[in-house]
Each structure stands twice: as structure tokens, then as C-alpha cells.
What does this fold into?
Amino acid sequence: MAGLDRRRLLASAAWACAWAAAAPGLARAAADAVLADVIENGPRAPADKARDVYRHPGASLAFWGLKPGDTVIDVAPGAGWWTDILAPYLARTGGHYIAAGADLANPKTSEGARKGRAAFEAKYEGDPKLYGDVKVVGFSQTSGPLAPAGTVDMVLVSREIHDWAQVDGFVQKAFADFRAALKPGGVLAVEDHRAPDGADPRKGNGYISEAYVIGEARKAGFVLAARSDINANPKDTKDYPFGVWTLPPTRRSAPAGQPPDPTFDHAKYDAIGESDRMTLKLVKA
It folds into this structure.
């Protein structure tokens, strides 16, 4: 009898060890199921879901290492393409979503940007059951910290660095802000329209090179953990009359600030699809 009890005890101990070893993987699998459910069935507009073929949200977030319970800063979220994925996912897994939006304390912030932030707050802060405890903080060339130092797991920057590169010191200030907010080992997740290495970052056509982004990130104290072609598009020749904005989804047909040209032929640009994009995982050293 004593031998049987001992075998049962050893079996229980072995099962407990196996469960402990498997639990993180099981938790991650469950979280991945939540992410898949949000992407497929969450509060996303049909037009946003239609862009998944170019933007690959599930694969991109998996590559960047999104985890249940993370605190994530989404920089310049616009109308909320990533918000409609990240906020519900983080709400369901015990995490926190922070939007780095228009800086209301900056007198140079446009009235349009202020109205955009107000609309964003009304939508996402007004439904905590669906979106969780969404927080919006100001972000600009003169803004303060985005979060208490060392408290953030991931900062997502989607198609913004090419604009910051047009302004002296903005990329450097932004990367310093992100590094300050991130925990040691925290992730700076980058997606942007990809220019050839060596391209002038101030060209102003909407494209920026991987070499430039990685170089500036390294100066700020990040290391390149991985790069991916999840969002690559070899059809993108990057030589269009109105820059990257000639392509979908913007489909510009005239210079910025001018009315659309009704005679412009979009067909060949629509056939290319959305831009060729870098996808980088940078880690706080």
C-alpha cells in the first residue's frame, strides 16, 4: 500500500511539473485564440478587414511578440485600424492600451488633429467593456513622457517614421520617448513604407529605408532583434506621381492640397495594391 501511495505521489508530482511546463504555452495558445477571434469577429469595419491581405495583423503581432496582459502604446493611431484589434485583445487578456495622439498642449497642433483626438476618445474611452481602459496621451516634438518610465511592453509605430524624418530632430526625440517608456527588453514594433537602402529620408515620397530606421534606433539604444517580409510587396516600384499615396488606400490623383483629378487612371496603381513595407522588431537594450 505504501508503495502504491508513493507511486501516486510521484505521478502527481510528474503531472504537476508537466502542467507547469506546459502552462505558459497553453496560456499563449488561448491568447492567440483571443487575438484570432478579435481579428475575425471583433469590432472592425469591413473596409479595415479588407486590408488584412496587405497588412497581415495576426502574423505581424505574432512576429513582434504581443503577449496577453501587455501594456502597448499605439503611436498616432488615426481612426483606429490597430486600435480595433489591440484594445479589445488587451481588454480580454488583462492588458492596457495607450494611444499616443494629438498633443493638446502644443499650440501648433491643428484644429483637425484636435477634433480627431476628441472623436477617438469619444469612441474608445466611451466603451470600457469592449475596449478596456483606453488612455490617450499627447505626442509631438514638444510632448512629455508617454508613460511612467519602464512600464510599457511594446510601442507600435505604423507608417509614421517617414513623416517624422521630414522634421529636424523628430525621429530622435520620438525614439528617445519610446525607449524611456519601455521596460528593459521591451519591443519597438515598426511597420513603414520601405525605400531602398541609401534613399534620402527627406525625399518626401512616403518611403523610408530600413537602414535609416535601424540606424536611428541603434543610436537611441535599441538593437535589431528581427526583420520580416510579412508585409512585403514586390510589385511596388516606388516611383509614382504622388508618392506612396498614389497607391491604395489613399489613391491620390493630384498633388497634396489640390482637388482630385477625375481623369486620373487608377487602374495600374490599384493592381499593385498597398505598398511594400518593412516590418522590424527592435528591442530596448
Summary: DSSP finds eleven helices and eight strands in the chain. The CA atoms of residues 167 and 202 lie 9 Å apart. The chain has a mean pLDDT of 91.
